[in-house]
């Protein structure tokens, strides 16, 4: 028989069995398709050595008027502005208290732990507090006390504990003087999503002993998610179902953000919201699922907006464009997303379009589709004018009308996903390759460990394993940025060829594997005697790059690959090839055969072409 080309359509077909997917790629990791053919993805390198406190869930790139290139970073515990690789803590303060006389009490002798007394402190476990003006107490110096601490234990509503760098001389001694102050950062959130009510639900030690959990009562008792947008060079941001804040870039990265309602000239500014954004076309600041004017209660279907070009004036008058509207479908706003011509707003049961219509109403809205789901607030991304999102069991796209996005990996993704941690799912893009990417937790994982990609250029799907808790593909940065769950650091992507997470770069384990193919109707065995590789290593920095091509035979779909039994099939044959390997002689025999290309060494890039195999019918039926 003539040489047989190994060529399949782009994308992975995983929602059928291997045999039913004959003629397609079936499995992959860390590859992409370009011009219809698979290739290894680019590497990643550490962007900064700085780390955050808590998992990063939010990245936003923006540029100030004096051309400082900022990256807003929201973690489960703090909020930062990155500039030049340095993470500057701008987390707003919740309150500053003047404590009573001698509010510091040391622990055991030799211990650095101290108790702090502050009536109705309102703190949660792991909150940050900065103590000041305390005097040396029981051998623990003033310098060791007067610094920022993370709370290690909530004793009761009036007392908590922190760990200092000191050592108590005798222990159980009260001191600190009469001028001690405590400045509290806003309550930290959680690294995990918590479901349910009642005893045993919710995070351990967040309430008093024996109390029922009220996990939706406060933003500090739930997975910490952020939203935000730049208002010119400044930043408006908020904690999901929590406070709304404003950071003035002109004050510098050493200045904390303040509550929006505390800004000079603020009028009726929202104090709690699901999400905030700045509309690109008309320059209104919008708050979704916020409190109404004159009320502190959150209305999760209410949308309010400020006066045009004024982030702090939220009082509607005949002389401005501030206003509000309330959605009439669903019980809460899940997400709002600004596009070129409209703002899309999801509730848990419908999708709305919100458009600027000018005075006197300012904004109008209409329903685009009902019975549409969004699996997580950040599971939305846009690319080339289209908006893509992940629903509870499907993918969708909006291009002026809502459509289900056909997927060849739908069952693979939704059949092995941790829905309890679905709120961690986030979407991003890699514009240079036309990719929309969703990061999610597999069924047995509590943190993100997988991704799935829709390639809008190739109209195909593929997937892989990677832990990225937030993503930014801003055009004002050289590379896409991803936050790693393991070390709380940020990485440049599509740079270099290796995995740069460790002290020494390591190789990226990349592979693509086909479904089983056969001769005719499978009534004859096939014998493969040689393979003619076709692979490019262009871009590799290894002077002698190698990839491994494998032919994996078996007799029936229900048995494992690679079991050697000369009366039926041979074992898997693996061949290391270089760019100028002309041919490799093999002995592969089986009813069904799968083809695989892979590499795991450092400094390697590869692109698969169209390899050919010398194949003929053989022997046993």
Please describe what this structure looks like.
The protein is mainly beta. Among the domains are: 4-42 and 509-618, Jelly Rolls (Sandwich); 93-185, Elongation Factor Tu (Ef-tu), domain 3; 194-223, no CATH class; 376-495, no CATH class. The protein is built from two helices and 50 strands. The chain has a five-stranded antiparallel sheet with strand order 2-42-48-45-46, with no helix packed on it. The protein has a five-stranded antiparallel sheet with strand order 15-16-12-11-17, with no helix packed on it. Strand 7 and strand 8 (79-83) form a beta hairpin. The radius of gyration is 29 Å and the shape is globular. The model is unreliable at 197-217 (pLDDT under 50).
Give the secondary structure arrangement, pairings included.
Blueprint lengths: L3 E2 L19 E5 L1 E4 L2 E4 L3 E3 L9 E8 L5 E7 L3 E5 L2 E4 L3 E6 L5 E3 L6 E5 L10 E5 L9 H4 L2 E3 L2 E4 L2 E5 L10 E2 L5 E5 L40 E6 L2 E6 L4 E4 L10 E2 L15 E4 L6 E4 L13 E4 L17 E4 L6 E6 L4 E5 L2 E9 L3 E9 L9 E4 L2 E5 L4 E4 L3 E3 L5 H5 L11 E5 L4 E6 L9 E6 L4 E6 L2 E5 L8 E4 L5 E4 L16 E5 L10 E8 L2 E2 L10 E8 L18 E5 L6 E7 L1 E8 L7 E2 L3 E7 L3
Antiparallel strand pairs: 1-50, 2-42, 3-4, 5-41, 6-7, 7-8, 8-9, 10-18, 11-12, 11-17, 12-16, 13-14, 13-18, 15-16, 19-20, 20-21, 21-22, 23-24, 24-25, 25-26, 27-28, 28-29, 29-30, 31-32, 32-33, 33-34, 35-36, 36-37, 37-38, 39-40, 40-41, 42-48, 43-47, 43-50, 44-49, 45-46, 45-48
